[in-house]
Write a structure and sequence with these properties.
Layout (H helix, E strand, L loop, with lengths): L1 H6 L7 H26 L2 E4 L4 E4 L1 E8 L4 E4 L2 E2 L6 H9 L12 E6 L2 E8 L6 E7 L4 E8 L7 E5 L3 E4 L5 E5 L4 E5 L8 E2 L4 E8 L5 E8 L2 E8 L7 E4 L6 E5 L5 E6 L2 E5 L4 E6 L5 E3 L5 E5 L4 E5 L7 E2 L6 E5 L3 E6 L2 E6 L8 E4 L3 E5 L4 E5 L3 E5 L5 E6 L6 E4 L6 E4 L3 E6 L6 E7 L6 E5 L4 E8 L2 E8 L1
InterPro entries: PEGA (IPR013229)
Organism: Candidatus Magasanikbacteria bacterium CG10_big_fil_rev_8_21_14_0_10_43_6
Pfam family, one: PEGA
């Protein structure tokens, strides 16, 4: 018994050892405490650069909201409570569960992270995102695109003119023009009368209205049609072939038609003369304001205003596309001009090397393109280059209200996000035949195109 007690005799530390231990603990406290405080405050030490920096935040909000998010190939997991984790383990289930969107990730060390978002049945979205100190990086207004194949809704040999909204289509044959919905092209809502020889379809950029130019017994006619109420269509007999037709952006859609020197306004309920002119380059901004181009002085003259100072353009213009109180969009040779209405001397004219146009009703911007470049013309004036392509661009259409665009080349459909934060491109379709026409129904998220697939020409629907 006595020998066992000797085994547990206390060991007496020397005074020097006790002081050393105490100093070590005190020093550890003063070293570790600031480190923990700084770490909690978001400060990190970067080994590669030997620097201390604060963390950043990444906010992710995409559709569908049950998509999986990977950062640097690691799945972002839901932080399950301890009890739920234990329950899953007892049940033999995995404790790994993908995080729920929207997602906010904090305490990220500054640097570049590869973000990969995926879901079965959808095209994956991948982008390198830079995280900066004390800043939040956002991935938002993103919708994954469906993995889908085009389905033929109507077989036809006719030419197709889709409405800008993608909801209606006019099929133009040699002797008839027929209006229907894109969803049901077999049911005609409006058909031109027998004896009318359709010449051209002109849809309004601003509303579901179109003009049908035709001839009846060699006499030119115009038929103004509302796609929503085609029974209210109105036919007008002309004295001459119109040299120019312009749609007016108003609550009640109307057109201005030039026959010789006469400008006439036409609606579904009647017609009225507006003015006479010796030029074919004009634009009616509203009932009181008309712009005319003087080819000799190379100026734009505004009629109907008390103050009437001309705009010096210093070059020829062959058409005026659009006008508001801040800028005029005009066509000149093989380019477009964005002309400031506040610059009378013509020193602030933006020249865009493009000729094709489409009005984006959601953003109030004009999309312009050449075979190799894509531009945006803004309502307040000015223009920006958005993309250059290696394949010739045929058509450009909006895919949503956030600015994502559909680029149609001869045989491909590409989704392009021009947002400089993302700048991503996804291939939606690739075929072997020419895409002749294309439209987008943003509400239903369906792309319609006139093309040939497996030898069958017709209208095809592609959900996206």
């Amino acid at each position: 018994m006595e020998s066992n007690l000797r085994m547990f005799e206390p060991y007496h530390l020397s005074r020097r050892t006790r002081i050393a231990i105490m100093l070590t603990l005190v020093a550890s406290f003063f070293v570790i405490s600031p480190v923990l405080i700084l770490y909690t405050a978001g400060y990190r030490y970067t080994v590669e650069t030997h620097t201390i920096s604060t963390t950043g935040v990444l906010s992710i909000d995409v559709e569908p909201d049950d998509a999986a998010v990977y950062i640097n190939d690691e799945l972002v997991e839901k932080n399950l409570p301890l009890i739920q984790r234990a329950t899953r383990l007892l049940q033999g289930k995995s404790v790994r569960e993908k995080a729920v969107l929207p997602l906010r990730l904090t305490d990220l060390t500054p640097g570049v992270y590869r973000i990969h978002i995926q879901k079965d049945g959808y095209k994956s979205w991948t982008k390198d995102v830079t995280i900066e100190s004390n800043k939040t990086a956002y991935i938002k207004n993103i919708e994954l695109f469906l993995e889908s194949v085009p389905i033929q809704t109507y077989e036809t040999k006719a030419q197709a003119a889709f409405s800008p909204s993608g909801k209606y289509v006019v099929l133009l044959n040699e002797n008839t023009a027929s209006l229907s919905t894109v969803a049901d092209p077999t049911t005609s809502l409006f058909t031109s009368q027998e004896g009318e020889l359709p010449q051209r379809i002109l849809w309004s950029p601003y509303a579901e209205f179109f003009v049908l130019e035709s001839t009846i017994n060699t006499i030119p006619h115009i038929i103004l049609v509302s796609a929503g109420t085609p029974e209210s269509a109105h036919q007008y007999r002309l004295t001459d072939v119109p040299t120019h037709i312009q749609w007016i952006s108003e609550s009640i859609p109307s057109i201005v038609v030039q026959q010789g020197p006469l400008l006439e306004r036409m609606t579904l309920v009647g017609r009225a003369p507006l003015d006479t002119t010796s030029t074919s380059v004009w634009y009616v901004q509203n009932n009181e304001t008309i712009w005319y181009f003087d080819t000799i002085a190379q100026t734009l003259q505004q009629e109907g205003k008390t103050i009437n100072t001309p705009l010096h353009v210093k070059r020829n213009i062959d058409a005026i596309i659009d006008s508001n109180n801040e800028r005029i969009i005009a066509h000149s040779l093989d380019s477009l001009l964005s002309i400031s209405t506040n610059d009378k001397e013509g020193n602030n004219i933006k020249q865009v090397p493009a000729t094709s146009l489409f009005y984006n009703a959601a953003t109030k911007e004009w999309i312009a393109w050449s075979p190799w470049e894509l531009w945006t013309l803004y309502p307040h004036g000015g223009a920006d280059l958005r993309n250059r392509t290696s394949e010739a661009i045929q058509f450009v259409r909006p895919l949503d209200s956030e600015g994502v665009l559909l680029i149609a080349t001869e045989k491909k459909l590409l989704a392009f996000n021009p947002n400089p934060l993302y700048y991503t491109t996804h291939e939606l379709f690739s075929g072997s035949s020419l895409i002749e026409e294309v439209s987008v129904d943003i509400d239903k998220r369906i792309i319609s195109m006139l093309t040939t697939i497996d030898g069958s020409r017709g209208i095809y629907a592609l959900p996206y």
